[in-house]
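Holo model, NAP. Inputs:
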Amino acid sequence: MLRVALVGITGRMGRVVAELATAAPDIELIAGLLSPGRDLAEAARLLPCNVRLTHDRFELVTDVDVVIDFSRPEVTAEAAIAAADAGVAFVSGTTGLRESEFAAIRQAAASIPVVHATNFSIGVAVLLRIVPKLARVLASWDCELLERHHRQKRDAPSGTALTLARVIAAARAVNTPFVYGRGPGLAMRQPGELGIHAIRAGGEIGRHTLLFASDEEGIEITHWAQSRRTYAAGALQAARLLVGRPPGLYQFADLLFDM
Ligand SMILES: NC(=O)c1ccc[n+]([C@@H]2O[C@H](COP(=O)([O-])OP(=O)(O)OC[C@H]3O[C@@H](n4cnc5c(N)ncnc54)[C@H](OP(=O)(O)O)[C@@H]3O)[C@@H](O)[C@H]2O)c1
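Output:
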């Protein structure tokens, strides 16, 4: 049995991960980290099974094989260090991380296996494999990214949009700063620019459109999630594939397709 601890267990993503983990025959959901203001008994009522709930990240990582995290950037950094101290694998899907929080993840990956993915869906993992080829072959075509998410999302643009943009920029070997939205002063497109546009509305789970266009034609590729289950299932699969590997920072797509 894979023994899992969950950071963000009361959140939109955490609750779906808890539900799928409880239903999976090979996974035991052992523990969950609560935010400081959360009452233990009230949190227990939200969950599908009996889990060790705690406010203490060191208690969280006791007697588990892997920590799965869908929370906030500052919590992610602390959880990564706690997982490393306990020698426990770490899977994080939290987005909006700053450089200092990425540094904590890299530090943890020196002693434990870690995967951080801005999107745990299979579709985006496949897209990340295809996009560099498209970006290179269509190097002279304009490229813009459009993403839509629910109104409560905290970061913009989405981590997935930024990941896609970075992959395209790397494939084209350009380092022009991304253009975020267009408005007065930024209306006209400059050569080589990569525009990213974020929409926040309603309950949209997550939709990303990648647009390549020349003067004569265009290609649009859209990925959308029908529910949070796709991300939760991907994170649990990442945990299965990660535990037992040597320390290091792994890519979700590499775990799925190459290893
Ligand atoms: N990689 C992917 O595939 C993927 C997919 C979807 C979302 N995400 C990302 O996952 C993250 C979570 O998304 P969400 O929609 O689930 O957000 P959410 O509903 O706001 O959940 C955030 C969770 O973090 C907890 N938390 C906040 N501060 C904390 C603290 N100081 N200590 C411990 N726990 C704390 C919250 O606890 P309370 O409930 O007590 O506030 C809640 O359980 C976001 O960064 C989002 O962009 C990634």
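The CA atoms of residues 147 and 158 lie 7 Å apart. The chain has two domains: 2-120+228-257, 122-224.
Archived with the compound record.
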